[in-house]
Structure formats: structure tokens, C-alpha cells
Amino acid sequence: MASSLVCSWLTAACMSISCENDSSISMLSHSSTTSLSSRRRKRAFAKCALSELSRDGSGNIRLHHRRKKVPRAARSGEAMSIAVQPSMEAAVKKKPPTKQRRVVVTGMGVETPIGHDPDVFYNNLLEGVSGITEIEAFDCSQYPTRIAGEIKSFLTDGWVAPKLSKRMDRFMLYMLTAGKKALASSGITEEVMNELDKTRCGVLIGSAMGGMKVFNDAIEALRISYRKMNPFCVPFATTNMGSAMLAMDLGWMGPNYSISTACATSNFCILNAANHIIRGEANMMLCGGSDAAIIPIGLGGFVACRTLSQRNSDPTKASRPWDTNRDGFVMGEGAGVLLLEELEHAKKRGANIFAEFLGGSFTCDAHHMTEPHPEGTGIILCIEKALAQSGVPKEDVNYINAHATSTPAGDLKEYQALVHCFGENSELRVNSTKSMIGHLLGAAGAVEAVATVQAIRTGWVHPNINLESPDKGVDINMLVGPKKEKLDIKVALSNSFGFGGHNSSILFAPYK
Known about the structure:
Helices cover 36% and strands 17% of the residues. With 512 residues, the chain is α/β, with parallel strands linked by helices.
């Protein structure tokens, strides 16, 4: 009864307002505005008309407001009377499907313990050359670990201005030189650079440790006086400044930042850079990672974590992924930079395409700061998501550049995750670049991405050195042996994992 009374009231109100509207229209020639009371009644009715009635548990009538704007047509009495009836939902206009922009690798640059050029670097990997030696940069005779993948000779001539070269931390110098070498390998001459739309060119190169040497030197200076501190100690210590300085040098105004996810940093940067291109925010992106932590505080910190190998008497045998006699990872340093480019943009300028970037994924173990999840859950999820998001069947993956750092727990958990994801694939070959250059921390993923692309280009995969006594349960037939192997790669996967449980997997394939 009460419901019908309210409905009757609403109908009467409709008619009343309709009449007032008609009257007010005819009065417009005599008055510039309608009365205040009339406008208030209209607003009150509009609020009621956009409401729905229902009964609660006690039988009382409740008014529920619909949060919708009153359409322009609702100013007439006819429209108002319709408003109390069930409304038709507007058809949602679907955005027409668009063809996804493809991303290709058109340039590469490296700074590593076994080469400062991608070809030299990879040829040494194929020959099984180890870059692990005794540390020479400082006296570490009192440390339990005295070996590393140290870059012995490094020149910035022609790449970095002498004034900056003296002030910058090495992680920035490695980044700048590797970045410019990537451009050079891509045929980006000064003439080509001038023709680029620099608002659509970006830099995304990260670092796990940042400018540790510059910051440490500032602390030592502070012991004397703040006046002795390097005025650039703060900007040159932050992880983002390398990307920023490179962009300033090149005049690239597109996406520019850095990501720091420990030893997964490079892969995070590469995948995010590719996504900027896919979304149409950039045409070209320099991406990768750089680290230079082989200094007293860096070495001491990892010694304190008890993560480093102490095989000081035989440095070249120290990094030995999947071998039962491994006793920790070996620190390395350097940088790796890829030039990713939108396919049509690359073709238009006649670029040499090295490989195609298919995609990847990130996950988090959410388990422990430094130890992998005991079931490898995060790694498995990461690989499966990378395959799904890239649209790659697991059977197509026949080469994996593993994270495998030579730690007792990490190597085995990754191997088990690979078996879980790919099963007994007789074509699958797995190796670890770290067996020869050590662990380059935030730069590891990028340098290994270069190795992966080089494997695609050359048709050869590098050996696993020092794998003399494989872990129990590890199928030696899946792992590359002590010599390089010929392989026609269909799809290659590169893994990088970092402290904090950060997991990353990225995929490359031959460009077709």
C-alpha cells in the first residue's frame, strides 16, 4: 500500500514539474529566470526520479539513489516519467583490436672481465675462458675471499669526457661506455642520431649497488670534515644517475629511470623498456644494468653474508654451478646494455636485427631475504607467466641461460624449477655464464642477455666450465658440457633472481 502511494506521489510530481516546465518556457520572453522555489522542486524531483524503491526486513520503504548524471533530455516531463522505469544499460563500445608492436634487439654493448666488445666477450665464453682472478684493486689479504671477476683494464677514451671520468663512480662509467657501444653496434652515427625523434628514445639502465665507491669515499672524507666531501657524492652514488647522465649526453627525452631489484635488476629494466615500446611510448630504449662493487666495503659485505666462494688457491675453478664442490658465488663487475627498438622503426632505418624480444615476467618468492623458496614456487610461477604472456609453448624453448650462481641452494632450486616447467625435453640445453665471469650482481642479467642473443646469432652455446661432479638428481644431459655446442635455437629463456625473492624471466628468439 505504502509503495503504491509513493509511486502515485512520484507520478503526480512528474506531472507537476512537467506543467511548470511548460509554463516557465512560455514565461522566458517575460522573465530571465524561473523562480527559486521552482528550481528547488525540480532538483528535489530529479534526485527522487533517479532513485529506486525497495522494502527492508521490517517492511519499510527505502529509497536508493542511483549515482548517474541526469541526461540533457531529462529536462522534459516525458523524460522524467521514463526515469522511474527500469533503464536500459548503454552498450559498451569496445576498442578495436590493435596489432601489438614487436620489439627487436638492434644493438649491444658490454664491459666484462673477459671482453669489452660483444664478439670478443662471446668468443671467450665459447672457448671456456675464465675471468676469475685474484683481486688487484686493493689489498684484501685479510679477507677470507680474495678472488673476483675483476675488470683489469678499462678505458673511457672517446666515450666519456675526461673530467667526468675522474669524478664518476665506476658503475656509471661502465654504464655510459656500454650504452654508447650499443648505439655504435646498431649503426647509430651522428647523422642518424640527428634524424631520430629523441622524445621517443629512452634509457632504462639499473644498478643493484649504485655508486658504492663514491659514497664510501665521502664517508672517509667526512671523518675529517664535510668540507672535504666530493660535491657530487650524492648524485653520483644514486642508482638512477647513470641513466640520467647517458640521456643528457644523447639528448634522449623519452622514458628515463632506473630499477634496482638486486641481482634481478637488468631483466626488470629490459622487460620494462620493452613494454614502453609495446605501449607506443618509445621507439628505442637503451636498457640493462651495471655494477662495480669489488671494493673493500662491497667484498666485506658479501663475506659477512657468507655467500662467497673461498677457493682462493684456484680462482678459475671457484665458480662451478651445479657442481657438488661449489662453495658460494664469485663477485664480478661490469655492465651490459641492449638497444631495443620497435620493429618497423628498425626496418625503416635499415638496422641490423640481432634477435627478437618476445616478453617475460616478474614474481616474488615472498619467503626469505636471501634464500630461495624451498619448493621453487616463485621461480616456477615466473617462468610459466613469462611463457603465457609471450605466447610461447614450453616445447619451443630449447635454450636456457640460467641464473645459476654457484650457491648450494640456489642452483638446485632453479634446476628443479626448470624440470618442473619443461619436463623431459631432450632438445633443451642449459648453461650458466657465471661459471666464467662470476656474478655481476645488477649487471648479470644484461650481460647474460647479450650472451643469449649471441647464442641465437652464432648458433653456438657456451660451455659450463668446472662442472666436474654434478649434483645428485641433476641430469647432465640437460646441461651443456665442458665444450661449446652447436644449437639451432628456437626460443631462448634467460633467468635472473635477486635478494628479496625477486624473480625474472625474459625470452628471445631469432627474428623471422
